[in-house]
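$ fold --in a.seq
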Amino acid sequence: MTTSLQITLIILTLLPGFDPSLETLDSLLQTGQAGSFDFAFIDADKTNYRHYYEKCLELLRPGGLMAIDNVIWGGAVADPQKTDLETVALRQLNQALHHDDRIELSMLPIADGLTLALKRSQAF
């Protein structure tokens, strides 16, 4: 007996002068692909991370995993004196994820910080 494994991925990354990420995610949702992805990786425009997170969470199947890069942002997210748009957006995302009962959450202090969010089967 043979079994096959198929993993579907979403990878969002910022290319210089080109960031169609929100439009791409909207297109996937509009074509009925919600709940069909196994893994999403977010490393794009920091001020839109929260939007990417929400859309990717909708696209992930229960048990799917999301990885979000740069969540420590050189330590700036822990410094209340840092108020640039990117730092504030990342700080707000981290706080929102901490309180989101749709996911199991782990933040890894490697490189510039990597968050792993596992989509729960049910919210508690």
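$ fold --in b.seq
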Amino acid sequence: MERRLEKVMRAICACALALTVAGCVETAQEVAISEPDPELNFVRVYRSVADECQLVGETAFTVDLLDDAADLVACPTGSAAMASLMAETGAPVITQTNSFSFFSIPYR
């Protein structure tokens, strides 16, 4: 009887440990939007004339993304320009549309 109780207690402890660890795992945040691209106000290219990344102005879509201490930049999703912007600035993607990934680049 004692052995059986010991096995049951071990199983309960193992389950409790598994649930505790599973609760600590962070899931990736969903940032993609499955709707068509919203209307965007592209102000100018961001880093150079040949850059695919562009400074974005205020629209209904971007109003909550704008920050007075940072540039809102949109790059074509998956482009080399996007990869280089992320490597240079370390900025994470804050949201996405079907075609663009958006970054908030703080002023330095």
